Amino acid sequence: MQIDKLLIDKLKSARSVVFFTGAGISAESGIPTFRGKNGIWNKLKPEELANFNAFMQNPDMVWEWYNHRKKIIHESVPNPAHLTIADMQKYFDDVTVITQNIDNLHRRAGSNKIFELHGNIERNYCVKCKKFYNEELDFSEGVPKCDCGGLIRPDVVWFGEFLPQDQFKAGEKAAMNADIFFIIGTSAVVYPAAGLVYTAKQNGAVLVEINVTETEISSIVNYSFLGKAGEILPEILNKYKTAVNL
Ligand code: BJW
Ligand code: ZN
């Protein structure tokens, strides 16, 4: 794979490096993506599962889906892509991760500054009174209920729901200040998250995409690497380290 010298030069002068990540970065950890080849949504329609009405109509089905995914996530470990991003903190002043993933793998890899746009699978709350239940839930008598009688749901963002504003605003600020903005393993079709790519570009960031296929945003990026994130990111960091004699 050819890594352009200009990109390495750009990295050498970069202060703020931002990683915008999606399900594809966790694919090499064994966690299925939503769309594309091997995407879980080739079989399951997103609208049928990732929305509030579906949950209220069939909470058992939606919880079955999340418990299944939680099991896979708990059995998985961060892969070289997550680990390289965490490693980057040693070499750059400001490394930010903006993730659409709910799987905690960036945190487990050691990244410190993470904004989670679509929630986190380890948290839950009551649909009625909003009380949080972050402990292991008991499903022995069906879908768990709050003290107030409301159903408990995972603290993730479904279609038609607002993103957590503190996380989104912080992600937006990071995108505005980015010198280099990596877009890794996302189909970039879900908004407002995907809009951050345009925010970064409009504010002068160099855009670098890493994906196994071309996406909606491939035509607007400065560098596009077609391949696995867990292979390409370590190569980019190694090339950078060689260039700066580390
Ligand atoms: C690899 C790889 C390897 C594989 N290496 N790469 C503006 C325009 C159009 C529509 C809208 C708009 N604004 C809002 C909307 C509506 C909607 C939306 O965007 N719809 C579009 C799909 C049409 N957005 C919303 O509803 C959002 N809320 C909102 O807008 O609120 C405002 C509002 C409120 C009320 C009324 C009206 C407006 C909320 C969106 C929430 C998305 N939630 C989900 C589920 C989260 C919880 C969970 O995980 O279960 O988030 S959906 C799902 O998609 C999940 C993901 O985070 C998200 C993005 O998917 P991602 O990460 O890109 O994964 P994939 O599978 O799509 O792609 C994987 C990629 O990896 C592929 O490209 C592969 O090639 C690649 N890959 N292996 C590198 N090894
Ligand atoms: Zn409650």
Could you give a short description of this structure?
This protein is an alpha/beta fold. The chain has nine helices and eight strands.
Can you give a write-up of this model?
With 246 residues, the chain is an alpha/beta fold. It has one domain: Rossmann fold (3-Layer(aba) Sandwich), CATH 3.40.50. It has nine helices and eight strands. The chain has a six-stranded parallel β-sheet with strand order 3-2-1-6-7-8, with helices on both faces. It has a two-stranded antiparallel ribbon with strand order 4-5. α6 links the parallel β2 and β3. α1 crosses α9 and α7 packs parallel to α8. The longest helix has 17 residues. The protein is elongated, with a radius of gyration of 19 Å. The protein starts with a helix and ends with a helix. The model has no long low-confidence stretch (mean pLDDT 95). It binds ligand BJW and zinc ion. Ligand BJW binds next to β7.
